[in-house]
Design goal:
The structure is a homodimer. The first copy, chain A, is α+β, with helices and mostly antiparallel strands. Chain A has one domain (6-105): 2-Layer Sandwich (HIT family, subunit A). Chain A contains three helices and five strands, in the order αβββαβαβ. Chain A has a five-stranded antiparallel beta sheet with strand order 1-2-3-5-4. Chain A is globular. Chains A and B meet through helix 2, strand 4, helix 3 and strand 5 of A and helix 2, strand 4, helix 3 and strand 5 of B. Strand 4 of chain A pairs antiparallel with strand 4 (82-88) of chain B.
């Protein structure tokens, strides 16, 4: 755990947030600035900044998170489709230095992803 | 290989496309409708539509692809950051039914991802 990381503190329960899903690998919470009807964040519990810092073991955990997510999408209101987004660094407008995946849907999204 | 899939046909060499990177797991090509200065597609060689269809073995391969991508980003012009996007279904505006990850960067992207 990184004490300066808001996501680590949410995972640890130090900052309150409604966890829509939680298991040993990850949490899923709502984005506080939603860009669509459904805008969630999948956050692995281990702290690492991005795929550049990600170890091989962490990549396998991330794969497991994506597989689990695939079983949850109907429950999360995403049966008609969704967009997964992960931002890295300045050009990507990464906002928190703890890897996370935006899960966006609940309506037809725009074509533009850039 | 799915003979009706444009990405399978590119992977097989039946449809010409400049492969910026290729290994046993994936290819990286340029998106033909770029939305930013750098807009690439990471395409796993195995044909499956999306994370819902993805097997556990395919998820581990996808993790390996992401790890490899993390070693290539500087070469690909993405040192200042990037955005990874994967669209699923109608609401996500998925265009090809073979899982692929958009790699977008080369300039500061917009805040809106939806």
């Amino acid at each position: 755990m990184n004490n300066n990381c808001i996501f680590c503190r949410i995972i640890a329960g130090e900052i309150p947030a409604a966890k829509l899903y939680e298991d040993e690998d990850m949490i899923i919470i709502r984005d506080i600035n939603p860009m669509a009807k459904v805008h969630l964040l999948l956050i692995p519990k281990e702290h690492y900044a991005d795929i550049i810092e990600m170890t091989e073991a962490q990549s396998v955990t991330l794969a497991r998170c994506l597989k689990k997510l695939s079983t949850l999408t109907d429950t999360l209101g995403l049966a008609e489709g969704f967009r997964l987004v992960s931002n890295k660094g300045q050009n990507g407008r990464q906002s928190v230095g703890h890897l996370h995946i935006h899960i966006i849907g609940g309506e037809k999204l725009s074509e533009n992803m850039a």
